[in-house]
Amino acid sequence: MNVLSLFDGMSCGQQALERAGIKVDNYFASEIDQYAIKVTMDNYPDTIQLGDIHEINAKDLPKIDLLLGGSPCQSFSSFGDQSGFNGKSGLFYEYVRLLNEVKPTCFLLENVNMKKEWRDIISQELGVEPIAINSNLVSAQNRDRLYWTNIKFDMPKDKGILLKDILTEKEFREIPKCFYKNWGNQQRINKGINWVGNQKANCLTTKNCHTNQYLLNEDKSLCRLLTADEFEKLQTVIPGYTKSVSDTERFRMLGNGWTVDVIAHIFKNLKHNTMEELSFDQLIINVHDWANDKGLIKPEFIKSQFVKTIEELGEAASAISKNKPDELIDGLGDTFVTLIILTMQCGLTPQEALNSAWNEIKHRKGKTTNGVFIKE
Fold it and tell me: From CA 231, how far away is CA 240, in angstroms rounded?
């Protein structure tokens, strides 16, 4: 699979593809932030960096299977200047340009919740309605985001992760006086502060960095800041992924990134969305041509091919025992391929072998016991 990631940042998309078990042949990234590029290349050195999105020409790229990106949200966000497409968020149209030029099989665009008029323009350009997902379903962070995609998927299930579940060891300190507000004759702690007992973290952004992520201990007597490592956990990023840059850059980068487990959840169905639908007869022809090109269709390879078939059946059996549907599909598919090649090595066609078996069983009598048909 060839992937083009626009506004790639620190390559959360690449982490998500890996987590979803999607094999990537070439990952092309458009990014201009030097710190984000450093983190990406430290973790994924094979990434093909393309630089400024304005300089990318589809003619210079191979067939792209997946286009993804999170175009700048600054002028869409309620924390921004609300200039919409007239501001930095107007870079969305570069995403549209490349979507039309590369014509990928699948695409994904992420952005913040925004005014309906802007949301409708994006939907019209992309031809799909956005799906709203809060990252709090898969993490300890409240993070409402919109996802425009032609990848079909179900909503992620709530994992029930709380702030207290992701905290690392760090000493708490006394609550500063500025944290208190006067409520009549009483002083109460500002309700905007996170409590580790039953709350989620506020949405991480590039604006707040870590300064408003104070949290209280269980009895609400002490507080502290979240650490950069905890920021990684809130974004479900690989532990230590951003450690090659300063904490200041880590906080900014993670506030600007994706919640990896949300994207990985969407990508789990990517295999089925990108596979070419072929007839059974065409598949047999393709397998024959492939095996012939590899020099496999020779009678002297029958025994070794039989062993290979048993190996692939073992992979399928393992997937069944582990309840891994994706691995089962791969295992059964590989078994079919090895059997097709085996029949050809024996001087038969798969159709001849199946036809012979069908004529044997179509009038067979017997009974089914424990899910297996036993002939008389």
Answer: 10
